[in-house]
Amino acid sequence: MLVVIAGGGRTGATLASVLLNHGHDVRVIENRPDVLAHVHRELPTEKIVQGSPLNPESLVAAEIARADGLAACQPEDAENLAVCFLARTRFEVPRTIACINNPRCAWLFSSTFKVDVALNQAQILASLIQEEVSLGDMMTLLKIRRGRYSLVEEKIPAGAPADGMQIKDLPLPPRAVIAAVLRRGEMVIPRGNVRLRSGDEVLAICDAEAARQLAVLFGKPR
What we know:
Blueprint: E1 2-6, H1 10-21, E2 25-30, H2 33-42, E3 48-50, H3 56-61, E4 69-72, H4 77-91, E5 96-100, E6 117-120, H5 121-135, E7 139-144, E8 149-155, E9 176-183, E10 186-188, E11 201-207, H6 208-218
Parallel strand pairs: 1-2, 1-4, 2-3, 4-5, 5-6
Antiparallel strand pairs: 7-8, 8-11, 9-10, 9-11
């Protein structure tokens, strides 16, 4: 997978490093001298394109024609919108992702400017805080389908509502399924006759509302 990253600041450089470590290919486009000096210390030179992300020649040099996606990580929202629009309309990039710097501009990051996914850091932080508070000791391990569903984990304490119940008798929410039970380091297949015990680690796939209900079912007694 090739990802073209518009902007080599802290977010862009870190994203490039993570993708490279996972075996993907990247091209980082940057033209600010001070930022370029920093990027060259963190990334291989052949992964860096010196130029403006809004210059079509820079995008061509970054091999945008064969890119699987573009990530707009520039410090100005207008530039992120413009490069997403350019990448889609002129170079037919199949996927565009843009960082939102000013939350008040979030409404602009839509299909009008060819933005497929907009990352609003303020909104993400607020959602994480709300989730952590509402789920108690339950941990979110993985987000699925753009955050609509999650893989969550909870270690059942003594006295929890689910402590001692068989899985078939659990009042599970409609949008929740138990994926696995870990008991003393071993995985137990979650069949209906398995009886949960305190100390079991339960992994479940669910949506946000179901996660809150599971946090009560598997959590500390109130």
